[in-house]
Amino acid sequence: MREDEVLTKQARREGRTTRWLVAYPRAVPVGIFLAITAITSLSVFAIERGEAQRDDSLMREAAQSVSSALDRRGATSSSYLRAGAALFATVDDVDLDLFRRFVSELRLDSEYRGADGIGWAAAVQPSGIPDFEAKMAEEIPIGIKVSPANSGEMHFPVTYLEPDTARNRRALGFDMYSEPTRREAMDEAMQMVRPTASGKIVLLQEGADDAPGFLIYMPVFDTSSPGRDLKGFIYSPFNAQQFLESALEIGSLGGRGVRLYDGEADPENLLASHDPDFSTGRILRREVRIANRPLLLEIESNRANMLSTMSMITLIFGLALASLLMLLARLLTQQAKEDERAMKLLEEQNSIRNSLARELNHRVKNTLANVLSIMSLTRRRTDDLDTFADGLEERVRALSATHSLLTQSEWGTTPVRAIIEEELAPYVADPERQVELTGPEVNLAPNDALSLGMAIHELSTNAAKYGALSTQEGRVSVNWNLLSENLVQVEWRESHGPEVSALREPGFGTELIEKIVAHELKHPVDLKFESDGVVCVLRVPVRSRGEFRIRANPYGGKLTSS
């Protein structure tokens, strides 16, 4: 592709862009701002969506980690209880020494954190309660009594609970089968013969504290008897909060909130929680099973309910860019409008220059034609060079005076009064001369003003030499009035001057008025030499501006006329 073709296409593209900027000076900047804002919003949306997906992935990882840790804690406890059940099923009687040897042999490590120990609840018939209390008094002399007292068919009082602490001793003697939640778990454990967790309870060892917890039961049957009689339960009590926190030590929580419920996510069912100082409302729920009991694990996002740092940076940068581009588009729009105005002004000036050149050529030709006509008439009416030169000079001066008026009006319209006053200036200013001018405000076109000026000059020169302006008693009155909106009549009347001979031959001025002026005005001139003085009636066209103006500024500028 040739270079000139490339430049032409580029110029066309720039021209289209400029036209858009000029045609829509407000819409284009606003459109650019809205477009960049929309792109920024989409970018922020994409970033936020990616951040939300990343946060969901991290929440799932955290939930998996915590649930795995909880499951591992429950499985470890269940394994210990199964081992204890297998041991106790083979002996005739579970006494304190046996129980303590068993617990010490377990060597409970960190995997058992969160539990309050391991306990034994022997099965006691109602009739065997006194013997049970007597035996317990021998082994643990603290006055243990089975409570609460009831008439149930079977009792399962807390017999031993290791480690042997003051806190754990609060639970000794408590009949766990007397409490509905514990009994439900114990019945299920007997039926399924496997470790079974209870629902939400408050451990006896908590004392006045109402911290929730739960227990895991494992039934122990007498394998030596044919009916597999139930000997009791080996169990582990758990403080739910400690149980959850022990799992969180190895869980990748990452500052997120976590809650553990026994059932639905309801404050009444809350077992334990680890809540940060904020709430985002973005929650992931997952079911976990602890000793065959379903619990609900809830993970709450730590992602604040506001835009991420990357989104804020993108938003601020996008809005700044949109504002900058809008301002730039606005400046370009103003520049385009100024360029367009400049181009129109150049075109206007070029048009004016061409019109002025044509008008000047036309006026110069007219003026030269008038001068040639004056010279021709003057030459025919004079016999010597001096008279010819003087006459020609006076008439050229008269043309020059009218030209000065036209120049002052920038070649627009010129008032009739100003033309007459200019030609009669020497006589109007003379207090000994009587000159009267009357008529309405009427403006004439430039060519018509020149013709009227020549006629008044000839009439005033003739009056000064031979007529009313040659004596002190003489009087000249010039009256004009509109015959129609397109025609004004100017009447020159002399009186009280020297008597005019009826046989007087027409002179140069008469011939100039009747031929040149009449031709230029396109109306006949009525010139009479009455005995009292000269009377001349001229009819001058009153043309509208559109008939003689050079051009009108289409952009609201000043009207330039010929």
Automatic annotation (TrEMBL):
GO terms, molecular function: ATP binding; protein histidine kinase activity
Gene Ontology CC annotation, any one: membrane
Transmembrane annotation, as ranges: 21-47, 310-333
Coiled coil: none
Subcellular location: Membrane
SMART domains noted in UniProt: CHASE, HWE_HK
Signal peptide positions (record): none
Highest rank taxon of the organism: Bacteria
One of the protein's GO biological processes: signal transduction
EC number(s) stated in the UniProt entry for this protein: 2.7.13.3
Catalytic activity annotation: ATP + protein L-histidine = ADP + protein N-phospho-L-histidine
Residue stretches making up the CHASE domain: 90-253
Key word Kinase present: yes
Protein keywords: ATP-binding, Kinase, Membrane, Nucleotide-binding, Phosphoprotein, Transferase, Transmembrane, Transmembrane helix
PANTHER family on file: ETHYLENE RESPONSE SENSOR PROTEIN, TWO-COMPONENT SYSTEM SENSOR PROTEIN
Name assigned to this protein: histidine kinase
Source species: Altererythrobacter epoxidivorans
